[in-house]
Amino acid sequence: MANYSIFALARNALQRHRNWPQAWRSPQPRASYDAVIVGGGGHGLATAYYLAKLHGMRNIAVLEKGWIGGGNTGRNTTIVRSNYLNPESAAIYDHALKLWEGLSQELNFNVMFSQRGVINLAHDEGEARELRRRIYANQLAGVDAEWVTPTQLGELCPILNLDPNMRYPVLGGTLQRRAGTARHDAVAWGYARGADRLGVHIIENCEVTGLIIRDGRVEGVHTNRGEIRTPKIGVVAAGHSSVLAAMAGIRLPLDSHPLQALVSEPIKPVMPTVIMSNKVHAYMSQSDKGELVIGAGIDPYNSYAQRGSLPVIEETIRAVVELYPITSRLKMMRQWAGIVDICPDASPIISATPVDGLYFNCGWGTGGFKATPGSGHLFAHTLAKDAAHAINAPFALERFYSGALVAEHGAAAVAH
Amino acid sequence: MLLLECPWCGPRSEEEFSCGGEGHIVRPLNPDELDDAAWGDYVFMRRNAKGVHFERWRHAHGCGRWFNVARSTVSHEILAVYRVGDDKPKVAP
Fold first, then answer.
1. Chain A stretch 238-257, residues whose beta carbon is closer than 8 A to a beta carbon of chain B
2. Do B50 and A240 count as a contact with CB atoms less than 8 A apart?
3. Which terminus of chain A is more exposed, N or C, with fewer CB under 10 A?
4. Strand order in the sheet with B18-22
5. pLDDT range class, residue B1, cuts 50, 70, 90
6. Is the complex ipTM more than 0.85?
7. Are the beta carbons of A324 and A276 closer than 8 angstroms?
8. A residues 329-358 lying closer than 8 A (beta carbon) to B
9. Closest partner residue to A255 among B48, B71, B76, by Cβ?
10. Does residue B32 belong to the interface with chain A, where contact is any CB pair within 8 Å?
C-alpha cells in the first residue's frame, strides 16, 4: 500500500480522488492467531501495531465489536499532557507524550498533534499550593511545567475571565508547553492502517461473547463470528473491561461511568491553548474547525449506556459561562458520552491476571486518550514478553493487594 | 435523567441524591484473619455489572437516609427500591 505524501495527493487529485486505496482491509477471521486483542480503540490498535512492529508478532487480530473510532477514541476531548504528580505516572504519561511527538511521521498519518500547551487553573490558595507542588514534582520527574500568573494567562488566552470578584477567581495556573491536542479518530485510523500494513487482521463488528479457558490457561475466544483459538489475549475494552473479566471469573477494581463532552457551533479562533479547571469543573479547547470542545464530568452512578444526564452538563456549562463570558450566547451543537472505567486510585491497570495468557489494559478512566501510544507500546511489551515493562510494572493489579496505589485524583482533572 | 423513589420521601429528581456505588458488600466479620488477597477483594474489587446493578443511594438533599436500588446499567430503568438490610429483590434483567 502506498505511502501518503504530497505526490500521492497530487496523483490522486488528477484521478479525482476516486482511486485511494482502503486504509485497512476487512479480513475474515482466521481459525487461530498467535495473539488476539479485544477492543479496537486507540489503545488496542496501538498495542497491535507495536506487537507487529517491535515484537515481530504479525499473526494477530484486533477484534472490535463496533467500528474503528466509534468508541471512546472518538468521544474524548483530545487533550494530551503528562503533568501527573507521582513519578510512576509522570514516567508512563511522558513516555506516551514522547511517542506523540513523532507519531505522524511514525504512522505516515497526520494525527494533527498540536503542542499548544495545557493550562490547569488555580482558584484558591490551597489549590495554588497543590498545583505548585505538582510543578516541582513534574520538574523533578523531567516533565516540563511552569507557573503562570493571571496577567500571563490573560495574554495567553484573552477570553478568560480574570475578574478578581468572580465567585472562583483565577489566581494563576500551571502550564505544560509540550502538552496539547491531537485529532482523536485520526489516531485510531493511523494505528489501524499501520497495523494492517504489518499484516494484523482488524476485524470489525466482531463481539467477544466468551473466553475459552482450560486448566487456568486461555485457549481462545467465542465471538459472534465464530470461535477463534489463541494462546494470548490482551483485553483493551475500556468501560467494558469488567464484562470481559467476568467471562474469566475475575473481578476488577473498576466502575463504569458515562463521561460527557460537548461542542459548540464553530467560531473564529479565540482559544489558542487548552485550559482546564478542576475546581469549577470545566475544560475547554478549540478544534481546528472552530468548535469549542468542552469536557464535562462523569455521571455519579454506574452505567453502560453511552449517554449522560443533563445535570452534569448544566454544571459544566455554568462554569464555562463564568470562566469565558463570551460563550454565553453560543449554541452547543452536539453532546455525547463515552463509558469510562474508573479505577479507585485514578491510575491505569496494565497487568497479567490469574489466568495464564490473559492480560488486561484498563482503568484509564477519564484520561486514557493522552496515553494511547505509550499504553499500546507498553502493553505490547507486556504481551510479547509475558512480563511488564519497567514503566508499567507499578500499574499491575497486584497493587490493590499490596497497597502500593498510585493516587492521581488531583492530576486526573476530572473528578472521580 | 433519573426519577428515584426515596422510600421515605417519594419520587424525586436524581439531583437530590448521591450514589454510594455497589451495595451488599459486607465487611468481613473476622478482620484479624484476613490476608492481603481477601482485603483487596473486599476493599477494591467490584462486579460493575452490565445489566441489573444493586446499589446504594442516599437522599442527600432530602431526608439524608440511605437505601438500596436495583437498576439496569444499560437502560437506567429503576427495577426496585428497597431498604438497607433487606435482601436483594428478585428482578428481571
1. 240, 242-243, 246, 251-256
2. yes
3. N
4. B18-22, B52-58, B66-72, B78-82
5. confident
6. yes
7. no
8. 344
9. B48
10. no
Q: Which helix (H) or strand (E) segment is A96 a member of? A: helix A87-101
Among chain B residues, CA nearest to A240: B50
- Whether B48 sits inside 8 A of A402 (CB atoms) is no
Return the C-alpha cell found at A44: 488496542
pLDDT digits (tens, 9 = 90+) for A292-313: 999 999 999 999 998 889 999 9
User: How does the average pLDDT of chain A come out, rounded?
Assistant: 96
Q: How far apart are CA A397 and CA A405, in angstroms?
A: 10
User: Distance between CA atoms of A402 and A387, rounded to whole angstroms?
Assistant: 18
Instruction: Report the pLDDT value the prediction gives residue A13, as an integer from 0 to 100.
Output: 96
- Kindly determine whether residue A255 and residue B22, on different chains, have CB atoms separated by under 8 Å: yes
Compute the nearest-CA separation of B9 from chain A (Å).
21
Of A138-147, A166-175, A186-195, A402-411, the one with minimum mean pLDDT is A402-411
Residue with cell 495545557: A118
The average confidence (pLDDT) of chain B is 95
Q: Where exactly are the structural domains of chain B?
A: 3-25+40-82
At A148, phi and psi to the nearest 5?
A: -120, 135
Residue whose cell numbers read 436524581: B14
pLDDT for res A290: 96
- Contacts A302 to B, Cβ<8 Å: 21-22, 48-49, 53, 55, 73
Phi/psi of residue B27, nearest 5 degrees: -65, 135
Whole-number Å distance between alpha carbons of A253 and A339: 16
Residues A362, A254 contacting (CB under 8 angstroms): yes
Interface size A-B, in CB pairs within 8 Å, comes to 68
Name the residue among B2, B44, B48 with its Cβ closest to that of A302: B48
Question: Which chain B residue is nearest to residue A310, measuring alpha carbons?
Answer: B1
Nearest CA-CA partner of A218 in A37, A416, A411, A28: A37
Q: For A207-221, what is each residue's pLDDT tens digit?
A: 999 999 999 999 999
Distance CA A184, CA A375 (A): 15
**Which structural domains are found in chain A, ordered by start?**
21-81+85-94+97-107+184-253+345-402 (3.50.50.60), 114-180+255-341 (3.30.9.10)
For domain B3-25+40-82, the CATH architecture is: 2-Layer Sandwich (3.30)
Cell of A101: 511527538
Question: How many Å apart are CA A283 and CA A274, to the nearest integer?
Answer: 7
Judge: A302–B36 Cβ closer than 8 Å, yes or no.
no
User: What is the number of other CB atoms lying within 10 angstroms of the CB of residue A139?
Assistant: 12
